[in-house]
From TrEMBL, chains A, B:
Gene3D superfamilies reported for this sequence: Winged helix-like DNA-binding domain superfamily/Winged helix DNA-binding domain (1.10.10.10)
PANTHER family according to UniProt: HTH-TYPE TRANSCRIPTIONAL REPRESSOR YTRA (PTHR38445)
This protein's record includes keyword Transcription: yes
Chain ranges of the HTH gntR-type domain: 17-85
Organism: Alicyclobacillus cellulosilyticus
Entry keyword set: DNA-binding, Transcription, Transcription regulation
PROSITE patterns listed in its UniProt record: HTH_GNTR
Coiled coil segments of this chain: none
Stated name of the protein: GntR family transcriptional regulator
Organism placement in taxonomy: Bacteria, Bacillati, Bacillota, Bacilli, Bacillales
InterPro entries registered for this protein in UniProt: Tscrpt_reg_HTH_GntR (IPR000524), WH-like_DNA-bd_sf (IPR036388), WH_DNA-bd_sf (IPR036390)
Any one Gene Ontology molecular-function term assigned to this protein's record: DNA-binding transcription factor activity
Length: 131, 131
DNA sequence: TTTATGTATTATATCACTTAATACATTTAG
DNA sequence: CTAAATGTATTAAGTGATATAATACATAAA
């Protein structure tokens, strides 16, 4: 899994997982954690495709999904830009986190762990992490 | 998503997700939480396939994976049985939980949440759950 | 005018998943 | 002994998501 740098972003793609989803997730997390500032210009479709050695259509698909989520806006021939709506970014961040938490807890409960069990496990890990 | 009862197990399959993985996950969680006792006999391949309205090969694939994990054993023409090795079950349960935790934390960190952040979120949910 | 951009279309390829249709050996039940 | 149920194996085919390829067009900036 080679790391590819494009602008301020680092990509590491895993063939075997959908590429457009990985590109999407990379950019999304870059926005969520502020690595990509509001209003930042994304690499052009062709440019990113070239850098990642994937098809432009695959990048387009990721960009379209970013637009659908309200994280990016296409400015015609000027390029694609991260939204300037900080609230939108925060909302997406929250939604994704909520979804991750829900899926995680569901999985843990399937394995027979209760919510307090899970809290305890993570608590311990947190303690071990910062002693 | 219709619920189908087979013996002591309830199945609800979602076309669009790999069927063999769903069958696998259902049985795995049934074992992990003790719903399926040690040494229990699983439905025959044909029987389960018939009940779930899927192909016997698909069930076979799930059963083979259960064997690979050490959760089930094929007893030839007598059927397929859950292992009697309680330690093995517990180990699988632990492994699956550890994997789920790792994946979850990685995802949350991608979204810019630290481990203490996550602990706090789940803590709050736990408090709200049991007031 | 040239260039870079987003966008769209059509075709093809690949791969995982699923179904289908049998077939065989072994064990249990009658 | 016979019949039935079981796990197992094989071969073929179908389906859908994903990805690539090759173009094409309109717009805006240089």
């Amino acid at each position: 899994m080679k790391e590819i740098h494009v602008g301020s972003m680092r990509f590491s793609l895993d063939p075997g997982q959908p590429l457009y989803e990985q590109v999407l997730a990379h950019i999304r997390s870059a926005v969520a954690r502020g690595e990509l500032p509001l209003g930042a210009r994304l690499p052009s479709v062709r440019e990113l495709a070239q850098a990642l050695q994937i098809n432009p259509n695959t990048v387009m698909r990721a960009y379209r999904e970013l637009e659908r989520e309200g994280l990016a806006e296409s400015h015609g021939s000027q390029g694609t830009y991260i939204t300037r709506d900080a609230g939108r970014v925060e909302a997406v961040r929250r939604d994704l986190a909520a979804a991750a938490v829900a899926a995680f807890l569901a999985e843990m409960e399937r394995l027979g762990f209760t919510l307090p069990d899970v809290v305890r496990m993570l608590q311990e890990r947190s303690d071990a992490d910062t002693p």
